[in-house]
Amino acid sequence: MVKRRLIAMAVLVFVASMVLVVAPASAATNPGFAWIRVAHASPDAPAVDIWVNGQVVVSNLAFAKVTGYLLVPAGDYNIKVTPTGATTPVVIDANVTLEKNKAYTVAAANVLTSIQPLVFVDDNSEPSPGMARANFIHLSPDAPAVDVRVQGGPVLFANTAFKSASTPVEVPAGTYTLEVVPAGAPGPVVLTLNNVALSAGTVYTVFAEGLAGGGPPPLQAVFAAFAPEGHVWYLAEGCTEADFETWILVQNPNDAPATVGLTFMTEKGAVAGPSGVLQPNTRYTWKANDYVKSWNVSTEVTSNLPVVAERAMYNTARTWGHDSIGVTSTASTWYLPEGATAGGFETFVLVQNPNPNQVTLNITFMTSSGLKPGPTNWPLPGHSRITFYVNQWGISDFNVSTMVKSTGGGVICERAMYGNNRAWAHNSIGYAP
Description:
The protein is an all-beta fold and 433 residues long. Helix content is 2%, strand content 52%. The radius of gyration is 25 Å and the shape is elongated. The two termini are 42 Å apart.
């Protein structure tokens, strides 16, 4: 049976506290954060240190180990690899560009005399309900192209050659026996992976490492798992102008430190926010007013570990306040049942677009007398936020619900209400089917 090999949590804790002091070599065009992990897949190389922009961020990484994801500011980085505890020889010296909201695996691959860095972009989006996502990366230098199949079932990854990654596939959660065979051939089975348990909502990467000719080290599988839920949170509402205060509240329920970064999205685009390390089982509060000034402020919270994010708003006199939990995914359709525009009530619909590209919004109101048209074919640029004041759309009704549809990418929608000349307020995230 092939044992799963995952790097010890101690390494993740160590690097989590260090990585934020490593700034990109040049500023990214788009503020935000990226994920990066490192795999040691060079079969005859010793344990190594990983240097990022001149600082050691991973120490004593041995063959067949994979670090957890590290959260870093998006931008350009120089990565060097040396034997553990030494500054020379530098066996890898590479420059990489890490883009906002993308996840990367950097692998030290091939035998030591030909060692090289390979960079893979990982699809860590949340799998469909009840499904797991699996990916295969071939890093065995003397193995031919291979197929990976379910024993007695279909081929999951076909014709994957050394130094390449397969197309990710979704499979029902469950326990499988997998077989590795030469590409296009029924056999022989060169590696059997018994009792591979795949959990719903989790993304798995299977690395083929070692030497197919018998080694040492022999051909083997290394598994790395990532659960997307809770790593990114969206908070559509927020305002830091006039007497509005906006607070971002993040809870770390893990037994390890979580590295958290904030990006604000305004009517003018993205604004880089703060970042920090939340110690185990703690809570931290950021006041958005300290970092951005705008009538329209949405927030994206990114973390290397699953966290929980909420947003609270007050006026400076603290005579009213409202609050909402965040959401962890976008959607193309949102429903907001509450709303009123008569009798001194004010209703606002708040839409956040975390995509890099522009989306198009179409909004319909549902009232006591039926459907009422709202904004149509309304463009919302990437990494921005817009506010729709429902009272301005010719509706005077105590019963106003809203439907928001987006094309070109998913968005996040909230609804805020005020009454008695802003003497009170309440708010809710919408429902996305």
